[in-house]
Specification:
By secondary structure, this protein is mostly helical. The protein is 73% helix and 0% strand. It is built from 6 helices and no strands.
Amino acid sequence: MLRQKFCGAAMFLKNNQADKQLSKNIYKISANRNWALMRNEEFRRRLSASLVILQKNNISESSYSPPMYKLYWKIGFRLPPPHFLGFFSNMLISGLPLGISAVGLYMMGHENSSVFILQMMLEMLVVALFFTVAWGSVVAMFYERDRKRHQLPRWSSI
């Protein structure tokens, strides 16, 4: 009986060590490709290097480090500067705050009626999607154009 418990504990430790090694290997592979999974030190190093690159290309600080991104970085989100994000990521990150705000303003002007609740929810969804996609696309096109004009490297190569 005691031998079974000991063997079970040894197998658990062996499997646990193998799992840790596997997760380290997966982390090393994915950290180079995915900015959301990278370690904090690695992210800080890349962030400071990318900000230096943007500053050397004479891009204004308000463009490469907007107040929303400073807030995200202070909170702890690991987002690259907007010039190093893809079009869709920029569209969502820039457009969602406006889309959510537009829904809030839309709700203030609407009567509180339980009869048309489904219609009101559908209208709010359309308003949110419209403002998110419209504003987000404009901002994303600006950053994409700037990235191509200054021939900035990819985030993965920094």
